[in-house]
Amino acid sequence: MTNTMSLHQYLGLMLLLTLALSLPLWTQAAEPLPSWADGPVKQSIIEFVQAVTDQNSKDFVKPAERIAVFDNDGTLWSEQPMYCQVLFALDEVQRMAPEHPEWKTEQPFKAVLENDHKALSESGVDGLLKIIGATHTGITTEAFMDNAKTWLSQARHPKTGKPYTEMIFQPMLEMLGYLHSQDFKTYIVSGGDTAFVRAFAEQVYGIPPERVIGTTFTTQFQFEEGEPSILRTPKLAHSNDGPGKPESIDAVIGRRPILAFGNSDGDLQMLQWTAAGPGKRLIGLVHHTDTKREWAYDRQSGIGRLDKALDEAKTRGWTIVDMAPDWRRIYPFDAVTPGQVQQESATLDRNERLSHHATLKAKEPVR
Amino acid sequence: MTNTMSLHQYLGLMLLLTLALSLPLWTQAAEPLPSWADGPVKQSIIEFVQAVTDQNSKDFVKPAERIAVFDNDGTLWSEQPMYCQVLFALDEVQRMAPEHPEWKTEQPFKAVLENDHKALSESGVDGLLKIIGATHTGITTEAFMDNAKTWLSQARHPKTGKPYTEMIFQPMLEMLGYLHSQDFKTYIVSGGDTAFVRAFAEQVYGIPPERVIGTTFTTQFQFEEGEPSILRTPKLAHSNDGPGKPESIDAVIGRRPILAFGNSDGDLQMLQWTAAGPGKRLIGLVHHTDTKREWAYDRQSGIGRLDKALDEAKTRGWTIVDMAPDWRRIYPFDAVTPGQVQQESATLDRNERLSHHATLKAKEPVR
Hints:
By secondary structure, the first copy, chain A, is of the alpha/beta class. Chain A has 13 helices and seven strands.
């Protein structure tokens, strides 16, 4: 390039630059799942979506019936070394302790405040339920969601130092975006608390509150001083794990999904319920096999145990995502696996990617 | 018209015919609520929708947050002389009687089978709950919805002789269609059984199952002989009346509506909850004031009592629909009130209108 470039040369250069800059966008439209390695798993997703959205296909499904359900912990984001919601509850005990001097001597709160893992572990499920009750109920839904949002904006994962909302799976974000672009209604069907998941699902996954189904507490409508509110009581209304998942799908959606993804035995009944419907189905399991970039665990894990569902997936020929080879990138902040680099938009930073994902009905697959 | 018409004349005639036939469609687009009489009530609906959908308005609301909730019985269809679902339950007792010889001597079933109004009335709420339990539970959701659909296709209203699904309010259908065309998500929030309302809501109102919220029974996921199913148990999970309505809106939608319509005191808390949110709101009550075309009832009625909510609507300036003057037509099969006739498409028969309403996201207001 010289200082004596003619107008003609200049315009030619601009045209080339424009073409070059538009290439990544074009590539995205042609390639819906860029973080998925080419192979039978990626192909099974694309073939399923094409079959049910092609009006001339015998497997065509009307948009209103394109219901897709996803587990959250371990399926859309990481769940190791501990469910995010449990870490939130433990931190909330610390935050609320000044208002509860009695916790200094009362288990399991004493154990949390003293960081006494042994005593906390000994308090078992009952202890955990007490902690959940104290931190998740007795306040309005709005106040609880505010607490969750505040915590999520400040908390960092012990291993990566990243916010939990960034430890979401880039390939699954792309899958959600792909499905949204094809007029699917995606739902999160989580064992976690519905309001906790709603506190981040729209911003992080582009899934609005009405498409989040989780564990719920009984609530109470109150009307005090002319101001109505919804109070969360400690009484469990619905435990959304195992059989609770198809039960809540029936209660809330009222229509059987045609696609279901999970990662643990707690998702088995949801997968069975989805698989047993008429017509073409896509049933998938995320198998955590990547010790280096994420974690590797299945049949022996206390968190996200995958045992019976893995056997059934193999018997029935469900799609099993082998995370290490099948995902070129795990998190949005990860680099793509060397040697597999395709067209990447290096200028699109993480925040742009996240806000891009949050677009409810992306007309193009998200990246 | 002669046999010697030239090609030129013929084409000219075709053009005129085409213009004439397209006129009603054009009129619909310009006039969203044709069965509503001109006046402040109709105006309040149109002004609200325009305010929240105009990007330049200070009251603009993003499409994702355009949530509108409607009671069903008495708000979207007639509820006199008895709730449709109760009549369904009574007819189901008759249908199921051959499988239940014990009912011949067991109340309240004996009273139903013998058409003994006095004994039935004496069995009270407990009796009604037994009848609901026997006819609504102990079967799968799919089987229950099949029963409801079969009954709805055969049953006729005692006064009009019409199917219940035709005794829907034409003005409310137009309002739903208008809201759908403006990217609102409309929900039914009914005291009725969720699955019962889902059995007709999509076909009749264009509201899909996931946007129907009602009273629910606890269900049980079952897996027998390789076939999963959802069994409805007799245990009530949620009573969706009064305070139960905002509670279920919070649980299922997770976002406060900006528009709510009801017709009775059972809707009061839903209206209060909606009204108390920030920003512009539309809160409406259907007041049954038409003895001739429908029914007239309010403070003294056993069905759909409207007393406290009417007082509160007046105090707070909510929109009160005075059915007799405000609705030019009640049902789709009604003629328009004489003297108020506007452009009507006489060639569009009832079935066409109903199927038109069922279009989920009508691009034009439904008629």
